[in-house]
Amino acid sequence: MTENAVKKVYRTTPEEVDKVRKWILTEDYKEKNFAREALVVNPAHACQPLGAEMVAHGFKDTLPFVHGSQGCASYFRSTFNRHFREPAPTVADAMTEDGAVFGGQNNLFEGLENAYTLYKPKMMAVFTTCMPEVIGDDLTAFIRNAKSAGHVPEDFPLPYANTPSFNGTHINGYDSMLKSILEYLTEGKKKDGAPKESLNLIPGFDGNTANYREYKRILEAFGIPYTLMADISDSFDSVCDGTYRLYPGGTPLEDAADSINAKATISLQKYSTIQTMRMVKDTFAGSAEVMPMPIGIKNTDAFLMKLSELFGKPIPEELKAERGRAVDAMTDGHQYVHGKKFAVYGDPDYLLGLVSFMLEMGMIPWHVLCSRSNRKFEKEMKALLETSEFGTGCNVWINRDLWHLHSLLATDPVDGIIGDTHGKYLARDHKIPLFRVGFPIIDRINLHRTPLIGYNGAVNLLSMIANKFLDIVDDTSDDQWFEMMR
Ligand code: SF4
Description:
Blueprint: H1 14-23, H2 27-34, H3 48-57, E1 62-67, H4 70-84, E2 91-92, H5 97-102, H6 105-119, E3 123-128, H7 130-135, H8 139-148, E4 160-161, H9 170-186, E5 196-202, H10 209-222, E6 226-228, H11 253-258, E7 262-267, H12 274-283, E8 287-290, H13 297-311, H14 317-333, E9 341-345, H15 348-361, E10 364-370, H16 375-385, E11 395-398, H17 402-411, E12 416-419, H18 424-430, E13 434-436, H19 454-476
Parallel strand pairs: 1-2, 1-3, 3-4, 5-6, 5-7, 7-8, 9-10, 9-12, 10-11, 12-13
The structure holds iron/sulfur cluster.
């Protein structure tokens, strides 16, 4: 030790580190870990305003407006930047200490006026972070005051949503913002007479831009006129041609306004559109349908048959052929995944879709974890597991985080993990592969450009999973088993 070296107050010996490393893999530690009440470690969800911002980016010429702290806004933006590798143009009124003491109305006034003048949006979607929610800012009054004081024109669309993050997750923020935008845009737009021959499709919170394109392709194959709500496919997967566009895509506002007259509205995510679909059911002219995400054959069949039934059109031949090819691919590939155990975590609707696909493939969703959900979801997931022998004995964990999952993987191991990037530490610690599905995926590129819904999505999911297991066999097999063909 040199003369100037800092003497550590407490030194952990390598033996002690090793002892703890082994201890956190035991049943004893798991028991203590599961007794945790006030602490969450590595949750598999984001906060409400992030979901609200995703919706705002999905409408044409719309500027997301964060009422609250600058740091929160940076977190949402940077998460979108990292996942999509695209800009996420958003403004924040940057409340600081004085806003926290006196309320954020002045911040909102100044922010709205500047954003309206500088960025020339056709709509601003306002949502809150924790700080204004904790101090009780009255967003309804603030927005009304901003208009009457002339900070934005009286007729300028300013839908808003309260999105407190200490309650719910990004899917609840998605729901609140979407409901608010649709309520605002459709007000007074209902026409007399029969609903028009078109469909409103709500994908729900989905960070996979290719899924949105796939929905559009399916509807176009059917020849069904549609409005895809909160369509982020171009907003977050825009062309690179040397011109920067502030608002590169999104659902046209006039189409969203006219959606109240459509023959039907289908939501493909039950849990992320609860309030929205309640509003649609109460106020829209057409029927309101809620279906599972079309991941895997069964759910895609149900989606296509619903479209066929609602619009009286036959299933297009090209989609029938895709189904046949998907079934063939699944038959060819099932031997590589059949009987393997998985841990899968994420949003409730994604989980229901993924588990349905896994059961079709004979994969065992041994640990299904949703880090913020309720008994209704737990019951629905258990009922789904009971439909297949591959669901027998599987475990559903709600309101548990990825550190709980660490204990589960140590004491009751599986062959692979399916979830977003946050699971990579688990994968490394337990030496099993992570199949990146969900949001955010910030350590791999372009995965959001590969669809996971529909028949093609089933082939993509299977290929990703089966080929990784084949890689592992090649990487680890002895010379005598190293084969050209698998
Ligand atoms: S949880 Fe609250 S404080 Fe944290 S980033 Fe989200 S809105 Fe901001």
